[in-house]
TrEMBL record:
InterPro entries in alphabetical order: MFS_trans_sf
Origin species: Corallococcus praedator
Transmembrane segments: 7-28, 87-116
Listed PANTHER family: ADP,ATP CARRIER PROTEIN (PTHR43596)
Claim: Repeat is one of the keywords in the record: no
The entry's keywords: Membrane, Transmembrane, Transmembrane helix
Domain of life: Bacteria
Record has Translocase as a keyword: no
Name of the protein described by the UniProt record: MFS transporter
Length: 141
């Protein structure tokens, strides 16, 4: 319902903006409970907001391209991101960086994520406007 009402762009931006707010709060008051809360909100946002918006981005491509792209994104991009994140976290632990400083890094990353979500969403919306098509929610496959 949110996708059809507001479009792709706000859904791609909402979760990272909420996470950025959480990281700003965490930088001001670094507590493990707040960090856990941010992780819960992040995961819920991924499933409730970003996944449907991301799936709708694939509605404009043919079936073969969709499955090739989704397989590449789900394996190389997400798993590669997990690997890089693990290395970064190992570096942060080795550097004994305080939680507040880690939160500032997370804030910057979340802001870049929101900016990228805005750009992808705007590009998608412009493409739909050029073709005269309406955004339709994609079924998860």
């Amino acid at each position: 319902m949110l996708l059809t009402r507001y479009g792709v762009t706000p859904l791609l931006m909402l979760s990272p903006l909420i996470v950025a707010t959480g990281f700003a709060w965490l930088a001001a008051s670094p507590t493990p409970l707040l960090l856990a809360s941010i992780q819960v909100v992040h995961r819920a946002g991924n499933f409730a907001l970003i996944a449907p918006a991301r799936e709708s981005l694939f509605t404009r491509v043919d079936r073969e391209s969709r499955y090739k792209a989704k397989a590449f994104i789900d394996t190389a991009i997400y798993r590669g991101g997990d690997l890089v994140n693990g290395w970064i976290m190992a570096g942060i632990v080795a550097a004994k960086m305080p939680l507040g400083d880690v939160a500032i890094i997370g804030l910057v990353v979340a802001c870049v994520w929101a900016l990228l979500g805005w750009r992808v969403g705007r590009t998608h919306d412009e493409h739909l406007a050029d073709t005269g098509a309406k955004a339709a929610p994609a079924s998860v496959s």
